[in-house]
């Protein structure tokens, strides 16, 4: 399954490992803006982010051969924190479509 490898990629800041989990036609849908991000853009965005941000309380809510659903907290350098939900549709054992949403959490 993908979850363990995804977690390892983040924990070791390994963008190459993260890229290896992505289907060549990966699409990431950003619901806040309606933007659709390709595999290259996804890796380009997350590679540098992996160096700066450490997800907290990351957990797999559900995974089978078709989908992976994760939840985690993202602490930002400015002191804010978001709760993030990832829905990942899989194809041929790889992440094919990612839909994500985040909710800002109050400081304190």
Automatic annotation (TrEMBL):
It comes from the Bacteria. Residues 3-68 form the DUF4440 domain. InterPro entries: DUF4440, NTF2-like_dom_sf. This is DUF4440 domain-containing protein. It comes from Nereida ignava. The lineage of its organism: Bacteria, Pseudomonadati, Pseudomonadota, Alphaproteobacteria, Rhodobacterales.
């Amino acid at each position: 399954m993908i979850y363990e490898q995804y977690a390892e990629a983040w924990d070791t800041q390994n963008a190459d490992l993260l890229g290896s989990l992505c289907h060549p036609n990966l699409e990431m849908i950003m619901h806040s803006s309606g933007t659709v991000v390709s595999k290259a853009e996804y890796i380009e965005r997350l590679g540098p982010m992996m160096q700066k941000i450490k997800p907290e309380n990351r957990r797999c809510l559900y995974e089978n051969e078709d989908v992976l659903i994760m939840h985690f907290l993202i602490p930002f350098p400015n002191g804010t924190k978001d709760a993030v939900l990832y829905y990942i549709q899989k194809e041929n054992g790889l992440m094919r479509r990612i839909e994500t949403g985040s909710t800002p959490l109050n400081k304190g």
